[in-house]
């Protein structure tokens, strides 16, 4: 029986509750779901076996990028510093095999997330292939992967956000949890999004809403944009506050055209069922 041990945080009640839920659930042994603990990248659902050499290599490169003092996103840095994240390395982005494994991992992450003990949690999915030839190529790969994840998801859309990708209140939802997705790849024009392996970072939407409720979001946002400006000399032209323009414009990192329309399509059942909207 797979065990999570103390990877689930310090709250004993929450840890045991989450552990029992995950143990009762069938977790595919093929699923690559990795935790970083005590300086080691391990498989917490498979008796804490060490991750593969390639997964460790890619993960270490990602940590180096995010934890650099010049990196812009403070939320990502907080999640990594606190160990409140999970990581996975998958086959070709958008492939059936990658989608099955990533779907399993994201479901597990949503269950484990409340017990990670941080206001900033994130799931990082890197892919072995392909190398995006340019920003438009990566954008197609990103939306292909999100579309195929959605097509496998049988949980209603997070009611806190819109399922319409053209709606200013849109956020991608999986397993009932809204995420702001950040794409990284080797040909990004934004330096903080330039990474050798195509990567999707799933940040819980609610953590930004919690900052707004505490009156901290604007200051937080200003710091991030200030760092981006200092590093690259400009901020990403796609940036907008939630509720002004659809978040979908920001996912790939490409400076999209004014008339750009998101290629993502919500399943007809979700469109019809009001409680899934």
Task: Please explain how this structure is put together.
This protein is of the alpha+beta class. The chain has one domain (37-57, 73-268). Helix content is 36%, strand content 14%. It has helices spanning 12-24, 53-67, 74-81, 96-112, 135-152, 205-213, 217-232, 268-272; strands at residues 35-37, 40-43, 49-50, 85-90, 122-127, 172-174, 177-184, 199-204. The strands form 2 sheets. A 5-stranded mixed sheet has the order 4-5-8-7-6, sandwiched between helices. It has a 3-stranded antiparallel sheet with strand order 1-2-3, covered by helices on one side. The relative contact order is 0.13.
- Overall shape: it is globular
Number of strands: 8
The count of domains is 1
What percent of residues adopt helix (DSSP H or I)? 25-40%
Radius of gyration: 18 Å
Given helix and strand content, the structural type is alpha+beta
What multimeric state do the chains show? Answer: single chain
Mean pLDDT: 83
Indicate the proportion of strand residues.
5-15%
Order of helices and strands: HEEEHHEHEHEEEHHH
Strand order, main sheet: write it out: 4-5-8-7-6
Distance between the termini: 36 Å
The total of helices stands at 8
